[in-house]
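Structural biology now treats backbone shape like a language. To illustrate, our science desk offers a sequence and the tokens encoding its fold:
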Amino acid sequence: MWLESLKNRIYSDYFMPSRFNEYERIIKRLKDSGYIFVTFKEYKKLLDKDKLYGKIFINRHDIDSDIATAKEFFKIEKKYGVKASYYFRLSTLDFDFMREIEEYGSEASYHFEEIATFAKDNHIKSKNEIVKRIDNIKNIFKQNFKNIENEVGYKLETVCSHGDFVNRKLQIVNNELTKDNNLRNELGIICETYDKELMDSFDIYISDKPYPIFYTPMSIFEYINKVNIICMLTHPRQWRSSWLCNTKENLKRVYEGLIW
């Protein structure tokens, strides 16, 4: 099993052909089927007003790595005149690209991971220790959030939690921070993408997966015209292999595991 997994990972990271033709087919099929493309901030406002009518597609990109591939997603979306939500980590922030996304009418915001980063930076291996220092971590999140807003020059309304191996080890997710309504109100955050009310409102939530699975729970093509509200999560890494980006990420993961 481990050998097969290793072979699949090597193929996915270094040899897998681009899947952009498939991504374009998804966008075209959804549009031809009458789905309306909305950002997370638009969807949240529709949900609050009880105005979710017809077929809706919420397209979420978590930009964990590989800005070049993210820009290819954006090119296809502009070709078909559709919107999406992009979430950037501190390590992938591209302020010019984020402003371009927003000016087009899509959404570019923050993919946060302060709990995992704090644990790694301070060699913390206890969930209880994280809980004790959660106020400190919230302050770091606030500063990072405000710094991004200042740089991009527009209001960030939604955020998205990133998942890290440290979160799994400590059994605490990064969106523990956004359970604090006072923090949300202070920063003007209307939702976090994993909020229960959002997740419960989707007819189906689909995430991409590494080769050879590609989708979970099933391919999006299985749901088009069968359900009304579809949310799909994608990551650049699953749609085009980039040996440089993937090598950097793989080495970073090994290094962080060793020093943590």
